[in-house]
Amino acid sequence: MRAAFVGRLVALKGVEMLLEAAASLIKAGQVELDIIGDGPEMPSLRAQSERLGLAGAVQLDGWVPHESLQARLCSADVLAFPSIREFGGGAVLEAMALGLPPVVLDHGGPPELVPPGCGWVLPLQSRDQIVRDLRELLSQLANDPAPLASFGKNAQAHVRQFLTWDAKAEQIRQVYEWVLGRRSDKPDWGTPLGFANPVAA
């Protein structure tokens, strides 16, 4: 199973937790890890990779031109995005649009983008617990990858239903209809977005 991370390599993105969580699975040949991006944490992550005995086993080659990102992400099975401080989560949406189900932490913007059946939302706990939860989930998916295809399909359908420009325009129209008194019920798409009307699994 191939997991990918994409984003700026800063401490708050949690990539060092991902490396630690995946280390034993990578060594066992169960998981491949592709870390896409660059930033001030790159030297530290490379050193950690060597310390964990993963040198050469983790793809950690820095910045990727945006036009190459889609193909790179499409070679993965899951987006591992353990950021502990994320207001939006554009990388999560881009991955979902490509049919890549995400793993995120329950904090900030990303969990609002990932309804049940479209990805996995892990609780924001201590660092050690996050590492254990990530390792357990990655191990489960490596041993039984069946959910990846259906979750990826659901993630892509969710983005198309709720998060395209046309879908957003329709949501705004419904809000205006309610504000102007042309509809009696207040629009409600649930939290996370779409939870009130989830995509069929």
Can you characterise this structure?
The chain is α/β, with parallel strands linked by helices and 201 residues long. The chain is 44% helix and 11% strand. The chain is built from seven helices and six strands. Strands 3-2-1-4-5-6 form a six-stranded parallel sheet, sandwiched between helices. Helix 2 links the parallel strand 2 and strand 3. Helix 1 packs across helix 5. The model has no long low-confidence stretch (mean pLDDT 93).
Overall spatial form: elongated
Distance between the termini: 22 Å
Low-confidence stretches: none
The major β-sheet equals:
6 strands, parallel
Beta-sheet strand percentage?
Answer: 5-15%
> What structural category characterises the helix and strand content?
alpha/beta
How large is the count of helical segments? 7
Strand numbers in spatial order across the main sheet:
3-2-1-4-5-6
Question: How many β-strands, per DSSP?
Answer: 6
* Average pLDDT taken over every residue: 93
Q: List the helices and strands in order.
A: EHEHEHEHEEHHH
Tag the structure with descriptive keywords.
about 200 residues, alpha/beta, six-stranded parallel sheet, 7 helices, 6 strands, elongated
Summarize it:
The chain is of the alpha/beta class and 201 residues long.
Topology:
Layout (H helix, E strand, L loop, with lengths): L1 E5 L8 H13 L4 E5 L5 H10 L6 E2 L6 H9 L3 E4 L8 H8 L4 E4 L14 E3 L4 H17 L2 H17 L2 H15 L22
Helix pairs in contact: 1-5
